Amino acid sequence: MVILQVGQTIGPWWTVALLVLFSIVGAALLRHEGRRTWRAFREALEGGRWPGDEVTQGALVIVGGTLLLTPGFFTDGVGFLLLIPFTRAGLSRLIRARVTPQSVKFFGAARRASGSGPGRDAGTSGDTGDVLDVEVLEIERERRTDEPGDGRTEG
After folding, report:
1. If you compute the radius of gyration of the chain from its CA atoms, what whole number of angstroms results?
2. Most buried in the list 46, 50, 91, 115, measured by CB within 10 Å?
3. What is the pLDDT of residue 153?
4. What's the pLDDT tens digit per position in 77-122?
5. What gap in Å lies between CA 129 and CA 134, rounded to an integer?
6. What is the C-alpha separation between 69 and 27, in angstroms, rounded?
7. Do residues 94 and 60 touch, judged by C-beta distance below 8 A?
8. How far apart are CA 135 and CA 114, in angstroms?
């Protein structure tokens, strides 16, 4: 509806040109903020810190990028707001303050009750309250026998 109103006001060609311009600028901003968020995520992991904020902001970047791909001035506006670091950080804090361990536990229990959650086949409910505290010291990738460089010749 907004596209039609803008088209009636400034003309159809200018409307299309504006939508294309917003898409180009949005794609550049999406690329920049996506890389920035990914870098922050990796730094948090390397620093031994839980990347909760980085994961939330990454999800907001994905939603913002999706909205920018959807044609329309309203969706572009919301998409741009989700890609701007200042507004994204504020929304991330708000989301993380609203999502508590109890709400995650509730949704996990609802999924398990419906038969679609993890642990259903293993015979555990996952609600025992037990915590497994582990520390990963080193992770090594095992080479599969069908990977290149395994010493076998293809024939």
Report:
1. 23
2. 91
3. 52
4. 999 999 998 999 889 888 888 877 666 565 555 555 555 545 444 4
5. 16
6. 9
7. no
8. 32
